[in-house]
Amino acid sequence: MNLADWLQGDHEPSERLKAAETLCRAVSDSGRSLDLDPAHIQMSGDECRPSEGKAVPSGRYRPPEMAQGGPPVPQSQVFTVGVLCFEILSGRAFESRGGPLLRDQRPDLPRDVSDAVQACLEMDAEWRPKDLSYLLGQLEGLAATGGGSSKPSSRGGRPAAVSSATPVNRARREGPAPRPWPLLAFALVALAVSVGIAFMRLRQPIEPPALPPAPPTTAPVTTLAAVATPIPSPSAVAARPGASPGRGTPTPAAAVSAVPSPSVRPTAAVAGRPSPAASVPVAAAPVATLAAATPAPVATPPPAEPAAPAAVTNVSPPLLKRGANVLVDVHGVGFRNDHQARISRPKEAVKGVEVMRQRYVNATLLQVLLHVDAGAPTGGYFLSLVDGTGAATNARPFEVGK
To answer: How far apart (Å, rounded) are the C-alpha atoms in residues 303 and 197?
Structure first.
């Protein structure tokens, strides 16, 4: 049986995991060109055995650079193996653009496995891994722990829902349907009552809304520099020698800027004549109250939650060759958009290894394109990430060989 026929059948997750692992191992161990067309890959149980040859994959298995008429590159074979692993693990055909991701089809798989397969499916060859070492390591580790026990369904890996129908529920569904006449009569009565209530409300006169009461007029308050002379009452005027109530003798209040205090009340007229206090004019001016301008409270923003600490767990591939541009997959936790890759050496400055560009994929994967000069010193290097505040993560080692 070939792989094309094998993909049409229903297989257990352990069988799918074993097939993807043996396919990656066969491609990684072979130093020759392989024919990776599914019709030319032989299946023996749950093991894949590609045939040797230089046949160009067709259809969705053909790398984008070759589909556009370009020559094959080392990453072209990685793309074809990524498509095959996607179909083996998910049980459905791969869609090059706008299709579902492997982690959506198989949520039971570890995120590192899904990300490793997705990295092989990049449209730009420079962003793909140069080999299958990291993907093979993830598949071998998952097989060793016995992962991938959830069986994918034909609709994308989600388990089918179990029907909860019981004989009682079926009997209720199969019973006679209730007659609609009582419900129709009740609806007509409710409609008639609603129309009657609306008609009675329309016949009621509409009263204008009541105006709010006018604010009370407050007597003006004037501060006098000197102490105001009190206004004598009529009894005090009559008690003075030579004074009679009928003459209307003026009081000392006429010489003062007459502004009555709110506590002074006008006295009654004596012998039918107005009181001296009542003859004093009063200016009805409003009291101007100057309120101190109170600044509006400034809303204090809530304190920002501290970001989760980032850490680098793996750098793939761990060995880089001189004189080439190498795409490095940086795996870890807590990655953010502001993280920048930094290369360092234990006791000397870095020469001949520089970061050309990088791309943030998700919180667990960051891809870095490194340029390694032909004369770059061989030996051990370290890669770490630095955020916008200058905080650095842990450093993971890699090597530069000849």
So the answer is: 55
Going by C-beta distance under 8 Å and a sequence separation of 6 or more, which residues neighbour residue 354? 343, 370, 371
Integer Cα distance of 15 and 13 in angstroms? 5
Q: What are phi and psi of 141, to 5 degrees?
A: -65, -35
Q: Is residue 91 part of a domain?
A: yes
> Residue 273 has what DSSP assignment?
B
The answer to whether the beta carbons of residues 155 and 161 sit under 8 Å apart is no
Question: CA-CA distance, 114 to 102, in Å (whole number)?
Answer: 6
The residues, any chain, with a CB within 8 Å of residue 359's CB and separated by 6 or more, are 127, 366, 367
Q: Is residue 149 part of a domain?
A: no
Q: How far apart are CA 376 and CA 373, in angstroms?
A: 5
Least confident range from 70-79, 83-92, 227-236, 327-336: namely: 227-236
Q: What is the CATH number of the domain that holds 322?
A: 2.60.40.10
Query: Do residues 104 and 156 touch, judged by C-beta distance below 8 A?
Result: yes
Domains: count for the chain: 2
pLDDT in tens, 296-332: 556 565 555 455 689 999 898 888 888 888 888 899 9
pLDDT at residue 89, as a whole number: 94
Distances (CA, A) of 20 to 76, 142, 271: 18, 11, 123
Residue 291's pLDDT is 43
Tell me the CATH number at 29.
1.10.510.10
Q: What is the pLDDT of residue 266?
A: 42
Backbone torsions φ then ψ of 359, nearest 5 degrees: -145, 130
Q: Which two tokens stand for residue 205?
A: 């006169």
